[in-house]
Design a protein that fits this description.
heterodimer; A: 286 residues; flat; B: 261 residues; alpha/beta; four-stranded antiparallel β-sheet; 8 helices; globular
Chain lengths: 286, 261
């Protein structure tokens, strides 16, 4: 029986794998066909090569900006470091203020109309004003990124803190928990998954914010590089930059997913299993 | 009220008592509980049974100190109740476990709130998990447990405080019939084992009688205690007792009280 189960398991495994391989093959096939059509369209003159550069040229541009000229690294470093610093600062501010406002009903009532007004205003519209106030350079760029990063964590933390399960709250009260204990052992851990969702939105927003700041300031960063290439009608290199951003965006998405699995482990089966055996080990060993 | 006068003689043995307890909500427009008088003896199991709106949960929450009475007074161990206290432990209809904690950590929560859990506290929690039949699930998270198992963890947590008065607000009401019956039998065994006094709220007449030494029948609008019925069935009680003649007489008595008012 056990042997049979094991064999059938292996069988199902191989079947699943071969199905997945076939699916991947299909996707790759479609992608290659589309790319080839694009290449062909450019070569045949159906697409204006000025605005729609050939895929082969884009690949060549990748090689140029990354290796031959290697000029992209400087800008990449500038953008990524700004995004990370702005994201951390902006979202920390958002989480902190969100928690503060969530816990204090008086502040909450007072701030609510302003929050609604600010939420309805596109944050990026304020970018030129921030540059006017803080001048060109790192400060205003950071300020713009922080601004676009602030809201999602702020709103999510606020709602996470406010929407505490009434029954759990009653449980804590019946156990005579202090306010600090309710905060540390119930409210904050309970809000972690929704705060993480806010952080994910914020990091994506940070990248867009950085690009806008770089479009305006045109000194350095991937955004200013795209601007320069487009003005010089070097569309292949502009596309190479855009695809670079695609890869960064994808990495951000995956990275945040990993982080969420790590921090909000109880939301995922794998995370629960990992922590379960970890707790067991730490309980038994010492 | 009858009950109150009856048991005055054994006052030393009374652990929970209420005198003219009343509770109104919405600035006096909703009378949740009116003029409740009761004495609960040490080690007894009391069921509060009645339709929704009869004030049974309100009465339980008044005893727990989570809410304050509008009139009258409740005493536990001879001191008036004015807030949640250490000698009372409470369990709710939902397991209300913390998703990010393992079973063991959930059971340890009340100990953590009182201070840092010692090695002995941890062993006690493990023993309690064994008592509720979950020794193999001490390191599982709530999402890895069934509804019935989650309530078992909540039961272990209830006992972890060491309080000798247990308040149970329809603890198995959200579970299926079979699981509930099973857990009721377990509950009876465990409460007897730890020698606690239990107040159990339910709207299930059979369950109320099966578990209790005394059944308080409550009626609604306004919520009041209509009758206290003594259940003189032998312990331990097998599930089959529910089909006996004595048992069904008690059921009828409860039904009549509920229907008559």
């Amino acid at each position: 029986m056990a042997v049979q189960d094991a064999t059938s398991e292996v069988l199902v495994d191989t079947l699943e794998r071969s199905l997945r391989n076939r699916r991947i093959a299909k996707h790759v096939g479609i992608f290659l066909t589309l790319t080839l059509l694009w290449e062909l369209g450019s070569r045949m003159g159906w697409l204006d090569p000025l605005f729609y550069p050939r895929p082969s040229n884009i690949i060549r541009s990748f090689w140029l900006i990354y290796f031959q000229n290697a000029n992209v690294w400087f800008h990449l470093y500038s953008t990524i470091s700004l995004v990370i610093i702005g994201w951390v600062l902006g979202s920390m501010l958002g989480i902190g203020l969100g928690a503060l406002v969530g816990f204090n009903t008086v502040i909450r009532r007072f701030l609510k109309p302003y929050v609604i007004v600010l939420e309805a205003t596109p944050r990026i519209a304020v970018a030129p004003l921030l540059i006017a106030a803080l001048g060109f350079g790192v400060n205003s760029k950071l300020a713009i990124i922080m601004l676009v990063c602030f809201f999602a964590p702020f709103i999510n933390t606020l709602s996470g803190v406010i929407n505490v399960n009434e029954e759990r709250l009653e449980l804590f009260r019946s156990m005579r928990a202090s306010k600090t204990q309710i905060l540390r052992k119930l409210v904050l851990p309970d809000a972690i998954p929704v705060i993480m969702a806010g952080e994910r939105l914020a990091l994506t927003a940070a990248l867009s914010g950085a690009l806008v700041a770089e479009f305006i300031q045109r000194d350095k960063g991937i955004g200013s590089l795209i601007l320069v290439y487009t003005r010089n009608l070097n569309m292949a290199s502009a596309f190479a930059c855009i695809f670079t951003l695609t890869i960064i965006g994808f990495l951000i998405f995956k990275g945040m997913e990993k982080l969420d699995h790590y921090i909000a482990y109880w939301k995922y089966e794998g995370g629960r299993e990992r922590m379960s055996s970890k707790r067991k080990r730490t309980m038994v060993e010492p | 009220m009858v009950k109150h006068e009856q048991s005055m003689a054994a006052a030393g043995d009374v652990v929970v008592s209420g005198l003219n307890v009343g509770k109104t909500f919405a600035a006096g427009t909703v009378v949740a509980l009116e003029n409740a008088n009761f004495d609960i003896k040490r080690g007894s199991f009391v069921s509060l049974v009645g339709p929704s709106g009869c004030g049974k949960s309100t009465l339980l929450r008044l005893v727990s100190g989570l809410i304050e009475p509008t009139s009258g007074e409740i005493e536990v161990h001879g001191t008036p109740v004015n807030g949640p206290r250490a000698d009372i432990s409470m369990m709710f209809q939902k397991a209300t476990l913390l998703d990010w904690r393992t079973s063991l950590e959930n059971v340890l929560l009340p100990t953590e709130i009182n201070g840092t859990p010692s090695k002995a506290d941890k062993n006690r929690a493990l023993d309690l998990l064994k008592l509720v039949g979950l020794e193999d699930f001490a390191f599982s998270f709530p999402a890895q447990l069934s509804g019935g198992m989650q309530q078992r963890v909540a039961l272990a947590r209830l006992l972890q405080t060491g309080a000798d008065i247990l308040l149970l607000d329809e603890p198995f009401g959200a579970l299926d019939e079979f699981t509930r019956e099973h857990l009721n039998t377990e509950l009876m065994r465990i409460v007897a084992e730890v020698r606690a006094t239990a107040i159990f709220v339910t709207h299930n007449i059979t369950e109320a009688i099966f578990l209790a030494d005394q059944v308080v029948v409550m009626t609604s609008r306004p919520g009041r205690m209509a009758k206290i019925i003594n259940v003189d069935l032998e312990r331990p009680r097998p599930l089959s007792i529910q089909t006996s003649v004595e048992f069904n007489k008690l059921v009828e008595d409860v039904r009549e009280t509920l229907g008559a008012v």
